[in-house]
Amino acid sequence: EQALHQHVLQRGADGRLRFRHPLLADALVAGLQPERRRVLHRRLAASLERQGAAPGRIARHLEAAGALAQAQRWRLAAATAAESLAEHQVALDEYEAALALGPTAGEAARIHLRRARVLQRAGRPQDADLAFEAAEQEALKAGDGTAVMAAMLAKAEHWTCSSRMDEGQALVDGLLEDGLVLPLQQAEALEIRADV
């Protein structure tokens, strides 16, 4: 009530309280002790989650609270939401933010693979190539053969759908001939091969 009376806060049309100006919020936050600031960010994230707020907003508060694993999940949710709206750059930004939070190598492999798919849809084949390569390298670091094969097959599929059709076909053929494709992934490899 005092903050309302002093015009620090104002009530929005939806009834929620907001700072009159972002600089007021910044000044208030700057004056808080770090642990108190983290607690408030955690509470804000929980409140935003209950209200069904945008995943990116929730992630930002979790990052400020130091809850990086939770923030990563919300960044991925934000990327998925952006993908569903064909907002490619927003999705890519969210994936980059998730990668900046220090995921495990296995998680990073999955994020890079998702990034590569968005880059494909955005018409950026060279960037997609780099993302597929990053997914493969992170999966190798994680020692996850299934993820390595998933990245390689996705890269091969990408190539067969682009100007690198022969390279994609050669990659799939090599994987199949060397017996490197796991049984669960053989159908995918054969489907890629059949589409050529």
Query: What is the makeup of the main sheet?
Result: 2 strands, antiparallel
**What's the alpha carbon Rg, rounded to whole Å?**
22 Å
Number of strands: 2
What pattern of helices and strands is seen along the backbone?
HEEHHHHHHHHHH
Mean residue pLDDT: 89
Counting DSSP H or I runs of 4 or more residues, the number of helices is 11
Structural class: mainly alpha
Q: Which band does the percent of strand residues land in?
A: under 5%
Biggest sheet: strand arrangement: 1-2
Percent helix range: over 70%
Approximate shape? elongated
Q: State the end-to-end CA separation.
A: 68 Å
**Segments where pLDDT lies below 50 for 5+ residues?**
none
Supply the key terms.
196 residues; mainly alpha; two-stranded antiparallel ribbon; elongated
Protein architecture, described:
By secondary structure, the chain is mostly helical. The chain contains eleven helices and two strands; from the N terminus they run αββαααααααααα. It has a two-stranded antiparallel sheet. It starts with a helix and ends with a helix.
Task: Spell out the blueprint of helices and strands.
Layout: H1 2-5, E1 9-11, E2 17-19, H2 22-30, H3 34-51, H4 55-65, H5 68-84, H6 88-100, H7 105-121, H8 125-142, H9 145-160, H10 165-177, H11 183-195
Antiparallel strand pairs: 1-2
Helix pairs in contact: 3-4, 4-5, 5-6, 6-7, 7-8, 7-9, 8-9, 9-10, 9-11, 10-11
